[in-house]
């Protein structure tokens, strides 16, 4: 059922040329070098450590690994992470 | 996410949460719409910056989920406001200071004059003051152009006046007129500038009217600029062409012996005014409304006294402000007598002094002589000093020729 709704949403987004992240609630990541990560459409923090941050998404979670990681700012939909980022990994 | 200014105006807190699984507090805060910044994880604790307005919500969160909450820092305007409320005069004081600074900077406090050589600075300042520019003048009360024009009009020797006001300082820059020199270029005579006896004569151009050994008075023509042609006897019987005198710029060197005389006298008895050493000082702070005496309100009354005052006064729109120091010193008259030798020495030095004042740039001093002219019965020693010098006495004097004549 959930999968079906997602497919319909995707079709509408394609047809109307609306950015997918708005319709499908999927994350949008902007990475500036290795120092800054700008993330939209997150669903909260699962784990936070200086070496690893796990961020909940609409589907699965995102894992950011690095050194001296710091959440510079966080609001319900967006967050900025500073630090020496080494790995960004998606988990379904 | 640029909310830093908003944070500053609303005030912000840096808080630390301690407890099990502190990441949870981030999600809980987000679910309540609390924005978090600078989230840092420590050992079993998490710290972040939040707006001061969300503190209540955080406090209730901490209570509900059994976290320990601690405020480690605070900043922003509301906290300064509290500081300002505690120190009531801080803000009005700062405001008064700014207003006073603004008000006082609208006056000219310093004046500077540059470029003047012949005209004194005081003269220019006085003239500028007449046209509205003086120390303490409000900048709106004078116009630069009118002051410039006024100074040029009043002081005819200036060709340019520029006024530049920067801050509380006004610079008056002047350029003086350069007048043509008094060098004689046209036809002229050489005349004697002073009385004397011609010692040597060298004519370069013109016709000599005096000979060596002649005694001349001031104003006598020594070398004439009017040269008459030599009359040549015509033997051939041809008609002679009448020749006219020629006008030249007379040149030459005329050295003459010139005598000078100086006179000096010195009394044998003299009344001299000396200071007794008694003195009193008064220091006054002067304001347009009242005078404050810091020292010596009542000055002693001396029979004879000398007063000296030095003041540091500034002109302001309300009057003069500053301080003044007055010193009063007692004087007395002491009778002194001199021996004849002392008086003679003094009279001689005076005579020589007056002689030196009269003398011009002598090339060579030929003879000097001192002569006592007072009688032995006089209570005064009088001395005359004579000097004989050798000097150049020729001076150019233009010949005024009426062009229509002849």
Quick overview:
Chain A is an alpha+beta fold and about 90 residues long. Chain A has helices at about 1-15, 20-25, and strands at about 30, 35-40, 45-50, 50-55, 60-75, 80-90.
What does this structure look like?
The complex is a heterodimer of chains A (92) and B (406). Chain A is an alpha+beta fold and 92 residues long. Chain A has one domain (27-91): Immunoglobulin-like. Chain A is built from two helices and six strands; from the N terminus they run H-H-E-E-E-E-E-E. Chain A is elongated, with a radius of gyration of 14 Å. Chain B is built from eight helices and 24 strands. Chain B has helices at 4-10, 23-31, 55-64, 77-86, 90-104, 121-130, 144-154, 340-358, and strands spanning 12-18, 36-41, 45-51, 68-75, 107-108, 110-114, 137-138, 158-166, 169-176, 188-192, 196-205, 207-208, 215-216, 221-224, 226-227, 246-247, 251-267, 269-286, 291-295, 305-316, 319-337, 364-372, 380-392, 394-398. Chain B starts with a helix and ends in an 8-residue tail after the last strand. The mean pLDDT of chain B is 86. Classes of the chains: A alpha+beta (92), B alpha+beta (406). The A-B interface holds A 44-50, 70-76, 78, 80 and B 1, 22-23, 26-27, 30-31, 33, 35-41, 46, 48. Strand 5 of chain A pairs antiparallel with strand 2 (36-41) of chain B, so a sheet runs across the interface.
């Amino acid at each position: 059922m959930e999968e079906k709704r997602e497919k319909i949403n995707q079709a509408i987004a394609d047809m109307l040329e609306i950015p997918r992240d708005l319709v499908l609630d999927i994350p949008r990541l902007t990475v500036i070098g290795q120092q800054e990560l700008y993330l939209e459409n997150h669903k909260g923090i699962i784990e936070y450590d200086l070496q690893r941050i796990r961020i909940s998404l609409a589907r699965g979670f995102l894992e950011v690994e690095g050194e001296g990681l710091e959440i510079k700012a966080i609001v319900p939909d967006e967050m900025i992470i500073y630090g020496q980022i080494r790995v960004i990994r998606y988990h379904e | 996410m640029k909310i830093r200014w908003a944070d500053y105006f609303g005030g912000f807190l840096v808080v630390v949460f301690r407890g099990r699984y502190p990441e949870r507090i981030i999600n809980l805060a987000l679910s309540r719409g609390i924005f978090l910044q600078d989230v840092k994880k420590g050992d079993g604790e998490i710290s972040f910056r939040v707006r001061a307005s969300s503190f209540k919500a955080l406090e209730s969160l901490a209570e509900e989920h059994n976290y320990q909450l601690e405020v480690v820092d605070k900043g922003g305007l509301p906290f300064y406001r509290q500081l300002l409320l505690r120190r009531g005069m801080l803000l009005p004081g700062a405001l008064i200071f700014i207003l006073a600074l603004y008000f006082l900077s609208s006056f000219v406090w310093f004046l500077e004059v540059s470029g003047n050589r012949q005209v004194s600075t005081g003269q220019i300042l006085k003239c500028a003051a007449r046209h509205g520019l003086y120390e303490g003048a409000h900048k709106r009360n004078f116009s630069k152009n009118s002051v410039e024009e006024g100074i040029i009009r009043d002081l005819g020797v200036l060709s340019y006046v520029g006024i530049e006001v920067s801050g509380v300082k006004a610079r008056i820059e002047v350029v003086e007129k350069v007048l043509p020199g008094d060098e004689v270029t046209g036809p002229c005579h050489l005349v004697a500038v002073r009385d004397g006896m011609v010692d040597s004569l060298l004519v370069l151009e013109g016709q000599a009217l005096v000979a060596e050994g002649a005694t001349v008075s001031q104003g006598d023509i020594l070398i004439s600029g009017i040269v008459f042609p030599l009359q040549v006897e015509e033997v051939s019987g041809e008609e002679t062409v009448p020749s006219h005198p020629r006008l030249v710029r007379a040149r030459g060197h005329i050295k003459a012996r010139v005598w000078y005389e100086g006179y000096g006298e010195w009394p044998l008895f003299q009344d001299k005014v000396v200071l007794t050493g008694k003195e009193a000082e008064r220091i006054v702070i002067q304001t347009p409304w009242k005078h404050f005496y810091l020292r010596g309100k009542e000055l002693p009354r001396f029979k004879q006294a000398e007063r000296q005052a030095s003041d540091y006064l500034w002109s302001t729109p309300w009057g003069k402000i500053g301080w003044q120091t007055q010193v009063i010193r007692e004087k007395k008259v002491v009778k002194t007598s001199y021996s004849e030798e002392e008086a003679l020495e003094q009279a001689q030095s005076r005579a020589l002094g007056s002689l030196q004042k009269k003398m011009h740039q002598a090339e060579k001093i030929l003879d000097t002589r001192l002569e006592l002219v007072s009688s032995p019965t006089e209570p005064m020693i009088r001395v005359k000093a004579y000097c004989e010098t050798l000097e150049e006495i020729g001076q150019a004097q233009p010949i005024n020729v009426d062009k229509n004549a002849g």
